[in-house]
Write a structure and sequence with these properties.
- The protein is of the alpha+beta class and 424 residues long.
- A seven-stranded mixed sheet has the order 3-2-4-1-5-6-7. Strands 8-9-15-12-11-16 form a six-stranded antiparallel barrel.
- α4 runs parallel beside α5.
Length: 424
């Protein structure tokens, strides 16, 4: 049954229906910006906390609110900035507009596969640049191209760290960013100077989110389909058997809706070895709990990052072991591909390095990293013909024919984004 606009607005106040990514070079303050908007620090793994950088996908939700009396952009805030629910300027009761979910991706060059996986979940993005440095920096360029490749076409540029440089430097680097996006898909993207640390101009950024990244139109009547971006064993060591909980998968629905009690198929699924040969078998389970952010719900919709409790043995979901899989109603999922035939489009230059070297043609027997959906796998080139390439995959992927694939090559010891393709 189709949902009315009123239904969607009601759901949107409980569950985020929009995923907003934060992208850009490492150390540009992406996680600090997400914390300013949501009150949550997305880097919470022990290694992330020690090193001060994002290593995995981080995510956090917030409620966008608006004062009915104050002018724009001062009227915009979030529940983290105004936790008491009243306007800090005039004392009026704030109106809830919607919940949104932020996907914070790593900015380090060695973690582009994770960035690409996160980008597939984004309905729009904030590209965070550094007002004190000569942008675009290498990973800023690479993230910008990655957003284009996976199909993100709604962008806001946040020029962060304005508190540490002069007005003249801010303007000079603003003009550099303006020249960088001129003539591209993001030419009209607003560039907003902010200080995430001191929460300066964050209201202007929220206003831009409302104007540039609306809640997408989705088809809620299709069978549910979820891209898995995380998977967990939530049981603490020493938990007695009778209190063990099943494995949890996290990610986003891209179509349909999902309710407690529904059956799930997960593909490619479980890796097994038969007579020395590696095979993958789909997993089947049942939805026993659902979370939209930190909120327990009975059903979930596309958009936002969701957690799905299952009856799976938690050993199958621990340590993100199901990342890249696709979940949905049994019998409705795309095919599993051991080999891919791609129509390939290579970039002219490698954009993620200090010097932009020419992208050479793909060669026979060359290893390539491919990203499709939230899946990352290594493929060996077994056939090349003009702009068509056939790959033998190390780990199979579940994807529709025609799906867009990002392609990376190992250059000077790093996997670098070199182009994209479509599954034939």
């Amino acid at each position: 049954m189709a949902l009315t606009d009123e239904d969607i607005k009601a759901i949107e106040k409980v569950q985020p229906l929009t995923n907003i990514g934060t992208a850009g070079h490492v150390d540009n303050g992406k996680s600090t910006l997400v914390q300013a908007l949501t009150g949550k620090w997305t880097a919470y793994h022990s290694e992330e906390l020690k090193r001060g950088i994002t290593l995995k996908l981080g995510y956090a939700d917030c409620i966008i609110m608006k004062c009915p009396r104050c002018p724009e952009p001062e009227c915009y805030t979030t529940n983290a900035l105004s936790p008491e629910g009243v306007c800090r300027r005039c004392g009026s009761k704030l109106e809830v507009i919607r919940r949104v979910s932020f996907v914070d991706v790593p900015g380090h060059e060695m973690l582009m596969a994770i960035m690409l996986a996160g980008a597939t979940l984004m309905d729009g993005a904030i590209l965070v640049v550094d007002a004190s440095r000569e942008e675009p920096l290498p990973q800023t360029r690479e993230h910008f191209k990655a957003l284009e490749i996976v199909g993100v076409n709604r962008l806001i540029i946040a020029q962060n760290k304005i508190e540490i440089v002069s007005k003249e430097t801010i303007l000079e680097n603003y003009r550099r960013v303006k020249r960088f996006v001129k003539g591209t898909w993001a030419e009209k993207a607003p560039i907003i100077p902010i200080s995430a640390l001191h929460k300066v101009n964050v209201d202007v950024l929220i206003q831009a989110i409302e104007k540039v990244i609306p809640t997408p139109k989705r088809d809620y009547t299709k069978p549910p389909r979820m891209l898995i971006a995380r998977s967990f064993d939530v049981n603490k060591p020493g938990t007695p058997p009778e209190r063990l909980m099943g494995g949890v998968i996290g990610g986003s629905l891209v179509q349909g809706k999902l309710a407690i009690g529904e059956e799930l198929e997960i593909r490619p699924g479980l890796r097994i070895v038969k007579r020395g040969k590696v095979e993958y078998e789909p997993l089947y389970t049942e939805v026993v709990s659902l979370k939209a952010g930190e909120v327990d719900v009975k059903e979930v919709y596309p958009g936002g990052l969701i957690g799905v409790g299952t009856l799976l043995d938690p050993s199958l979901t621990k340590a993100d072991s199901l990342i890249g899989s696709v979940a949905g109603r049994p019998g409705t999922l795309p095919p599993i591909w051991d080999e891919l035939e791609l129509e390939v489009h290579l970039m002219e230059r490698v954009v993620g390095m200090e010097r932009m070297i020419k992208v050479e043609k793909i060669r026979m027997n060359e290893p390539l990293i491919v990203n499709v959906g939230t899946a990352t796998t290594l493929g060996k080139v077994v056939h090349v013909r003009d702009d068509h390439v056939e790959l033998k995959l190390e780990i199979p992927v579940c994807a529709e024919e025609g799906a867009r694939v990002a392609i990376s090559r190992r250059i000077e010891g790093r996997w670098r984004l070199i182009g994209w393709g479509y599954i034939k």
